[in-house]
């Protein structure tokens, strides 16, 4: 299985669910609301409430849990490191001693809360890209940033950059896998040795990967210029975005549930 399939960062899963049909601006605002309210929760009961809401959204969107897990798995090392740091750095009543270090009762609680928060944060944010096509996401970001054009912010260009980045992440991951397989066939070892040796062994992968990325960027620029792309000035859209009653209902339910959970817990 290709690396891009195992790590679908920014990958869109086509569907006809109610979540897929939401206006992209609704899903962008919902994602921001999810992140903000999630940091306002400070108890396991609150995270359980968020988890129930997340499961309901996944069922409604018909997204398999494994698709969300594939986006979380590459970040597990960072999550575990953060949890381990909080486990040892939080003062409290010692429960287990590891030489000069001690795991405290408060450290266990803090590590658990941080882990739950990060897992829910990544899982909730992944719903946006899993249910929104790159084109719709770009249109939604551009529309939300359009009022800032009055102060000189290039809304269209920023939205285009984000859409292109999301589009080429899986492509670059597949390219990295092909380069690693080619290097392994020539005797390269990426799995043994110390951390420094492993980092050093990745240099033969990073150099051709950067060369490939710059080549793709140059080809994309030539293709866009050949199609007379001149930025956002005077551009129109084939499909204009319009909020529907389901978008208002979605935001109302989300506000009640998420803000209510953050306020109570």
Number of domains: 2
Largest sheet: 2 strands, antiparallel
Number of strands: 2
Strand proportion: under 5%
Summarize the structure.
This protein is mainly alpha-helical. It is built from eleven helices and two strands; from the N terminus they run αααααββαααααα.
Explain this structure to me?
The chain is mainly alpha-helical and 265 residues long. The chain folds into 2 domains: 1-132 and 240-265, no CATH class; 155-234, no CATH class. Helices cover 68% and strands 3% of the residues. The chain is built from 11 helices and 2 strands; from the N terminus they run αααααββαααααα. The protein has helices at residues 3-6, 24-38, 44-61, 65-72, 76-89, 105-131, 134-145, 155-185, 195-201, 203-226, 245-264; strands at 94-98, 101-104. The chain has a two-stranded antiparallel ribbon with strand order 1-2. A hairpin with a 2-residue loop joins strand 1 and strand 2 (101-104). The longest helix has 31 residues, at 155-185. It is flat, with a radius of gyration of 22 Å. The two termini are 42 Å apart. The model is unreliable at 1-8 (pLDDT under 50).
